[in-house]
Amino acid sequence: SQQGEEDPQALSIQEGENATMNCSYKTSINNLQWYRQNSGRGLVHLILIRSNEREKHSGRLRVTLDTSKKSSSLLITASRAADTASYFCATTGADSWGKLQFGAGTQVVVTP
Amino acid sequence: GAVVSQHPSWVICKSGTSVKIECRSLDFQATTMFWYRQFPKQSLMLMATSNEGSKATYEQGVEKDKFLINHASLTLSTLTVTSAHPEDSSFYICSARDRDRGPYNSPLHFGNGTRLTVT
Fold first, then answer.
1. Fewest C-beta in 10 Å: which of A9, A30, A77, B61?
2. Residue A53: C-alpha distances to residues A72, A93, A102, B105 (Å)
């Protein structure tokens, strides 16, 4: 079953603008991760934030986590056409295998 | 580093035949691999957790006799879609976790997926 809901479902912006997408989840987590998927391809890991962290940065990416609201956000600053992709949040719970449950995803289109 | 190779990238088969998809971790060992299924413009649905040397654990609603998983070594897991039907047409993606990183607080590494079309 899917763990999270993401919004917006789709986002269209111009190069140079910032893109923000949100993710909500339902159960307690060990960590929350964001992945990117280019059309017809596998997923690429972007960033992992642990349940005891509130904010994390990686290059042009900024992730926040609010465990009290069971939500996270991903901000991509100064977007580029190459950022066009689907973005998924995923959570790891307390089960023994650390399996990931994915959200519905946000489709981002960055136009030059 | 942390490359997962999935093969084939696409396959077309006739209804009733079986198809095997391979997932290999090239530069790390993976005690656990995961198989996902993805429909167009939708999220990834976890099908099963594949553990080296033991039986796979299937998610609710996934037929284990239809989707056979074998994890014979620390670098290879296979998914066999048996007696495929058109409704099995989908995008199948495998992922693996580096066993040296532990099950928590480490990312999954994904293959590039297999597009299965059953005619």
1. B61
2. 11, 16, 20, 12
